[in-house]
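As a warm-up, study this chain.
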Amino acid sequence: MTALREALLDGLKAVAQPERAGAMQAYMKSAMPYLGVSAVPLRQVCKRLFSELHYASSADWQADVLAIWRGATFREERYGAIELSGIRAARPFQTMAALGMYEEMIVTGAWWDIVDAIAGQRLIALLRAEPAAMKRTMLDWAVCDNMWKRRSAILCQLNARSETDLALLEACIAPSMASKEFFLRKAIGWALRQHARTDPAWVAAYVKRHEARLSGLSKREALKHIA
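Now compare it with the structure written out below.
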């Protein structure tokens, strides 16, 4: 166990509410047990431990993230790894060199709480840093066999707002439009609903154009806040 992982685990245990752990595990349908740490104290522990960290290289930073991720015995440790992946000191390293790490976390995490945090909060930084390479990768993910990578491609511009590449969004949605998989249908609706905050007319027109192919769930989600 690395010193950082040990400090994180000790910090999480100190604020845990063990009586909540079982319910949290059941709600998330997690094979990995919980300590019973809710979001706010978890972020406080991470901020205290990670805020003064500095890394000489992307490799050093990734090594710490993956040591926590791979060694986790409680799900909150994996949440901590995701927090570490987004610290200020790591901003220079949010490039395609980090994509392999995020891909591993998405594929091995394989559930919405993990995947959505990485897809919605981390992949956008890579897309901004290296748009051409990242777009090619997201287009590959959009048609791959792994459902969580498909979901990630759909959600990778969740926080892009006016910077949203609409052609990329459409291209990432299209291969999953006919899917019966709940998590893909939900992702399509969520991505469209989020963009509707910026351009509701475009989203309304998109849904109308693809009305026969979009699932009812995707359409309801997309149009939820459009009058």
